[in-house]
Amino acid sequence: MILLFSYTLLSCDIRKNKTNADAKATDSTAQQFKDSTTVQIIDSVYNFGKLTDGEKVEYSFRFKNTGENPLIISSASASCGCTVPEKPEEPIKPGETGFIKVVFNSQGRIGDTHKEVNVISNAYPAFPPLALRGEVVAAKK
Fold first, then answer.
1. For the chain, what is the radius of gyration of the CA atoms?
2. Rounded-to-integer distance, Cα 33 and Cα 50, Å
3. 43 closest CA partner among 128, 109, 110
């Protein structure tokens, strides 16, 4: 009997803690949506055609803040070290266009190429992956 009573008390405490955690998660999600904005991706794929091994290609992906809050890009990361993205450091104001500059170094990347840049921001829905595509051909000797 004492064992059953102890179990009941403990299980009530677990449910109470779970309810508190759920409430905190809901508050955090609500704050995220309150501060979010929308974004229109103008360029999501860039096909650079053919490059000779060792050449670099630079491209600036464009996007527009179509929401009511500033767009804050917290990170931009590439699928490999041969692709280096640069994110805007300042928030993009509503109605403004922003850029994510990407530099791809083709050294040693002979063949068809598909590189992605993932962007983390306060946009909802989230940024799609930005893609660089093309072909790297061997240098003629």
1. 23
2. 42
3. 128
Measured in residues, the chain has a length of 141
Query: What residue ranges in the chain does DSSP mark as E strands?
Result: 39-41, 45-52, 56-65, 73-78, 83-86, 97-105, 111-121, 130-137
Return the CATH superfamily for domain 39-137.
Immunoglobulins (2.60.40.10)
Q: What is the pLDDT of residues 109-132, one digit of tens each?
A: 999 999 999 999 999 999 999 999
Residue with tokens 């999600």: 29
Per-residue pLDDT tens over the stretch 23-36: 454 444 444 556 79
What is the CA angle 33-69-64, rounded to 5? 110
